[in-house]
Specification:
The chain is α/β, with parallel strands linked by helices and 219 residues long. Helices cover 41% and strands 19% of the residues. The chain has a seven-stranded parallel beta sheet, sandwiched between helices.
Length: 219
């Protein structure tokens, strides 16, 4: 039986493309969402060898209507989803004091609100009403990092959102879970290699319901 689509929000040259390749090689059509359509088209061409349909969709995770429209287009073209992976986030240097209000609002929209928008868009479309809603978290959700105030706040808020979503969906056949990656991705250690981490997302999707938890920790 054909597998459902995997919708990945936030696809770039590291973790995002590793997720796309891993799920495509496992037999899923893959929708890759990010702002730069030209780069997404290049990734799709590189993934043609997987034998699965992989397409890019331009979307701004800070803009709810843009994000919803891209998800609708992906599902219309590729079919009902099995999985959402929300991998979008803004990594920058900033402080908890000062700064521009609108800039903080924009970053928070990507780090937190976009996750809710994407989940709400995918959830009613899941194939047979079952599937996985997965979110990329980070160690800064537990301990704020100096010079990374907005990211620390965003990951902490995202972690609580996913936990609440996990509780809300208990018993429905939909697994909401965060993947808390405590160290920088792709910095040399094998367990933080993007491909190794991407396989953990695939395994989480296939995890027996009796083992479901709201968070997978990789440290």
């Amino acid at each position: 039986m054909a597998l459902g689509t995997v919708v990945i929000v936030g696809v770039g040259p590291g973790m995002g493309i590793a997720l796309a390749r891993t799920f495509a090689e496992a037999g899923h059509p893959v929708a890759m969402l990010a702002r730069d359509k030209a780069k997404l088209d290049g990734y799709a061409a590189d993934l043609a060898s997987t034998g699965q349909e992989v397409r890019g969709y331009a979307a701004d995770a800070a803009d709810p209507e843009s994000l919803r429209a891209a998800i609708r287009a992906a599902i219309s073209e590729l079919g009902a989803p099995d999985v959402l992976v929300y991998n979008a986030g803004v990594v920058r240097r900033d402080s908890p004091i000062g700064g521009d209000d609108q800039d903080w609002a924009h970053v928070t929209a990507i780090n937190v609100l976009g996750a809710r928008v994407a989940a709400n868009a995918v959830l009613p479309e899941l194939r047979d009403g079952r599937g996985s809603l997965l979110f990329t978290g980070g160690g800064k959700a537990m301990t704020p990092a100096e010079g990374r105030a907005s990211l620390s706040v965003g990951k902490a808020a995202l972690r609580m959102y996913v936990h609440a979503l996990f509780d809300e969906l208990a018993g429905t056949g939909v697994h909401a879970a965060g993947v808390r990656i405590s160290q920088a991705i792709g910095t040399g250690e094998e367990r933080f290699d993007p491909t190794v981490l991407a396989r953990a997302y695939l395994e989480l999707h296939h995890q027996p319901e009796s083992e479901w938890q709201h968070e997978l920790v990789r440290d």
